[in-house]
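Fold this: YdbS-like PH domain-containing protein
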Amino acid sequence: MSEAKRLHPAAILFNFLKVIREFLFAIILGFITFRNESFSYFILIASVLIILMISYSVASWYRYTYRIEEDELRIEYGILIRKKRFISINRIQSIDLTASVIHRFLKLVRVKIETAGSGLGSEASLTAVKLSEGEQLRSELKRERVSADQTEEVVENQAPVRKITFKRLFLSGTTSGSIGIIAAIFAFVFSEMEQFIPDNIYESTINWVIGLSIVILIVLGVLVLILLWVLGIAGTMIKYGNFTITKNEKELFITRGLLEKKQLTIPLSRIQAVGIEESLIRQPLGYVTVFAQIAGGSMRKGEEFPTVLFPILKKSEVEDFLQEFLPDYASQHDSMTLLPKRALKFYLFRPMLPVVFLLAGVWYFLPQFIWVPVAFLIGASILGYLRFKDAGYHLTGERLTISYRRVSKMTMLIYHRRIQSFEKKQHKLHLKQKLASMKLSIIAGLGGQHFPIKELEEKDVDLLSDWYSYRR
């Protein structure tokens, strides 16, 4: 691949759609502004802009070339100002192949190349190349001198592979808890669409809703919740459909997606910590999600962070999964050092305090709705107790296991060499109670990831501090 190559001509379409997406707000604003008297001027200006966008997309595609030469990926691009980017093969951390619906229809892929310092975006992104060329490019950049068919055969015969079943995928969707996110998106879209609805239709609809009985309103509310729940199931199944994880010698290889197929490469050396998430819905059922915190790479728009290693597993299956794919993180321990009982009042006080102020305000201004903050107060006290009950740690040699809860229960497995900082905090009440809080930090994402445990025994925090600093 030493000769310079251009992207597939379909890249013109993707460049055009990207430009349209960036100027979409301005286009909508112009349509709203000039839709009455000066609509013909809007059409004229929009036509000129579309012609310019198409010309820009074609020129960008023609001037974009890439090649591999002297252990470097060399990319040249730019219409008026010519830019050259040289990426050393030794600096490349991962090569991901993704394919949207259009990509898959045309048998193309998008190649995303990441280095340790990629930051907010990928180090390089080839928007449209043939599938065979994308696999060849990945093999060249990974210094693999075997054909794609041979690679797949070796992976299939020797490497550990685990796929998600349809039953588990459906269960993952039903317990994903994404109904709240979808409801928020639905409410935002509805609020934005309100200005396009004629006033007479909007007012008549509101009056019709107000005139309905309480029973009908409850039924409609239940139907909306069911619809949002079904949409959440569909979204999860589309996102994690055909989920497959494979372990090679030095990396994990993940393939997922029904509409947009994604192939993610995770070097084992970049894994900073492994986590087990138990949501409020899945925990009583005994199911968890296994994920990894990855150093470097890009915080890509639309990508979840951290990286999901398997969407849903039974808690009893996690040990075998880790033993198969990440044996260094296997051998979990259930015997955690928990918080002392005198820490419970702190955990109850924190979530209940803002609700108490809300309760006072509603009681004074809207006493007929006092039951709303009372329900929130009960929920806050339950959450505080769960946070107290689930917090703890276990120390084994060079590995630390910590457990805490925000809403979901998180269990993190972290090696000493991956911890970047250790922080101990105490205020006056802590000193009187001989308690202390700690916070661990690792390299992952923007600004790192932080894992706090509050109100531990002071001696336990000192023990962990000494362990981190190699003090005896």
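DSSP finds 15 helices and 21 strands in the chain. The longest helix spans residues 214-240.
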